[in-house]
Structure formats: structure tokens, C-alpha cells
Amino acid sequence: MAAEPVHKDPSKTGSASKSGSASGTAAGSAAGTQIGRLAVDARLATPDEVQACIKKREELIKEGKRYDLGKIMVKAGVITGSQLKRLLVPSGDDSIAPSIQQIPGFRIMQKVGAGAMASVYKAKQLSLDRIVAIKILPKRLSEDAEFVERFYKEGQAAARMNHNNIVQAIDVGEYGGYHYFVMEFVDGQTVYDHLVKAKQYKEDEALDVMIQIAKALDHAHERGLIHRDVKPKNLMITKDGTAKLADMGLARQADDVAAAEAEKGRAFGTPYYISPEQIRGVTDVDARADIYSLGATLYHMLAGKVPFEAATPTAIMQKHLKQGITPPDHINPNISTGIAEVVERMMAKDRKQRYQNCKDVVTDLQRVRDGKPPLEARSNLRDDVLQNLADGTQAEGEYYEPHPAQMRHHSTTSTTTSSTPGWLIAIAAVEFVAIVMLALLLAFK
Predict the structure, then answer these.
(1) What mean pLDDT comes out for the span 158-182?
(2) Residues designated as active site
(3) Does the residue 336 lie in any domain?
(4) Percent over 90 (pLDDT), the chain
(5) Average pLDDT, stretch 233-251?
(6) If we measure between CA atoms, which residue out of 204, 230, 194, 191 comes closest to residue 339?
(7) Are residues 144 and 280 in the same domain?
(8) Which helix (H) or strand (E) holds 107?
(9) Which of 33, 55, 81 is the last residue before a domain boundary?
């Protein structure tokens, strides 16, 4: 980025009227010159152009006319009407108090997104002359101690990460009654944005994104952090194709016993992508929950639809608990069997049958990308099935689920399996015959 020319702060120039309207003029000046600074920062106008418009505004003020600097700049042809709209901070979130505009060390430029808990703004970090993103908690939530604590924990969790595929944390703080979290600004779009436009990802594109995000999750898991909200809206893609994991708002230390007990029985996550164990609110949620959610996200990317749909969040979550998925390659025949097997292994309802860590996920995804079969997705097939049959028991609230690789060629409408697979019966029969023949041979020796 080229260095900006040195210029005077437009708010420091001009003279205030000595009439009784001086206080109103000062207030208008403070609000108006903000647009001038934003226009210069965005390189839509030069300092000289802004100064000329400020001078014109002062002349109009003396004539008793309106002095809206933004409109003056549009009328003078310095910026366009649409550019003015982009510079103006939208009036949501408690009308955006002036204190937000004055967060020390930063200059708010424009609103770029909003969620249920916070809004995100593009801003400039003045000390380092770089663009950043600032997430700001609205006033109505700033009075809720639980939300504030979660907000700061998000910043602290992100600060522990140092990985190219994770959005970098910069600072957290409070100013003017607003809590804010400063982070790396990602110039691009989310996976969700792409899905809205294109409906599906091509397999090679999906693999490229997933490999990067799986590496990011592995980095987080190695540091004891579970994301707990992996979904398309939290995966950002830069213009050069770098995938970045964002939003650590629900992240939790895997070994935080106190937090786990406090959240026991409560489902944290997004219904379309949440793991079965998160739905049950178990206290020992671990990395495998993120693997399930990553698998559900990959399913959406490949199939063009979420794994389960229903009228209510509760009904969707019940399907995560009890209904098997339709293999993604049955929905999108253009994808390979290999990647479909990886998805099914990631989304196994019994977490013991999923990938046990993201390193194995990365290995299989890379093999599929190289045109090879996914080894981990097909490993230990017979051992897993036999172990389930031998145990004859299952965890409370769970049901017997054959290994994903075993299930993938069965009917797509079947949700559970209560009978022993035919191929397993055949193996058992052969073994039985062999044992009988061996016994007869020993008897006649």
C-alpha cells in the first residue's frame, strides 16, 4: 500500500462562528469533517479537495444555509452519491454512538457485517497505517455479563492462535461503554457467500478450502481449543484463495471443567452443522465435534444443501441425532466416491467412528485431491463393525451405527441398521465351516 500524503486534520481548520449558533456549528463540524477524513482514508478524495469543500461549507454556514459536507462533496463532484453511502456508518446498533467513531488508535470507515451478537466494521489502525476489522458488541448486550465475558474470551482464544489460516487477533477493549475486538481484516468473502451465489463448490475447490481449514483446526486443537461453531459463514476466503477460520465466539478450552459443567445439558452451535454430542450437551466435547461440523460444512459445499432440513431447529437437531445422511455423491454425481467417503467418516454420529484428529482428515483429503483412495476413511472397517456387534451396548441416547464405509453403498433412505450385513454373515459362515472341518480332521487323526 502506498503511503498517504501528509495532510492536516480537516477538523482543525477553518474558524468557528462567533454568533449564538457557535455550539451548533461546532457539533456540525465534528460530524461533517468525519466524512472528509473517511474519504481521504479511502483514497476517494485528496486532502486539498476536502479542504475546498470545507471552505465551501463555511461560506454556506455564514449565509445561514445547510452545511452537510458529504452532500457538498457530492455536488462538487469529489465523490459520488454511492461512495458517500459507503462512507456513512449505517445507523443500526443503537445508532452507533460517536464514541465508537473515537476508539483510540482507530478510525472507523464503514460497516461490513452484522450478526446476532455484534457488528463488524472496517477501520484503520492509525499507528501501523493498516486496515483492520473491529467487532463491536452493541450496548444492549454490553450490560449482559455473560455476553461480555464470552466476547472477551473470543479475543483471548483467537490471540492464542498463530496460523495463516486463522483470522489474527489484534486487540480487545472497551471505550465509551462499547466493548470491541480488533482483528485482521479479510478482503474476500465467506464460503456461505459463495454457496448463495453458486449453490455448490467444485470438488477441487472444496478440497482446497477444507485442507486449509482442517490444518487451522488442528492448530487450535493442539492448543486445547475447540471451536464449536464451524460453518460456512465462519470460513473466509481471501481474493488470493487463502481460507481463514473466523469467529471464536463459542470456542472453549477442552479441559475447562468449570465451563463444561456450567454448560452441561445446553446445546451450543448452529443447528445445521452441530455435532450430536453438542446437541446432548455432554461435558466432554472435544476435537471430534469440530470434525463433525467441518464434515457437515463440506457436505453443504459439495451437495449444495445442508445435510438435514426441517421446519424448526429442534427438528433439525433430532435428525443429526437419529437420521443417517444421504451420501453427497448420490446428490451430486460429479464428485468422487473418495471425497464422499471422507464426508461420511467425518459425520459419523458415534464419535468413536469419526476421524480422531484433524491430521488424519488432512491426510485423506490430500490423497483424494491426488486421485488416491482415502485410507483412514476405509481403515479398520471390519474391526469396528465386529466390536459394535460384540459389545451389544451403546451410549445413552445413541444408536448402533455401522462404520461409514460399510453404509455408503446401502439404501440412501435407511437411517439405522438393525440386522447384520449380508457380507458379514457370509464371512461368519465361512469361518464356521472352516472350524467344523478342522474339528473333524482332528477327530479322525
Answers:
(1) 90
(2) 229
(3) yes
(4) 43
(5) 90
(6) 204
(7) no
(8) strand 106-114
(9) 81
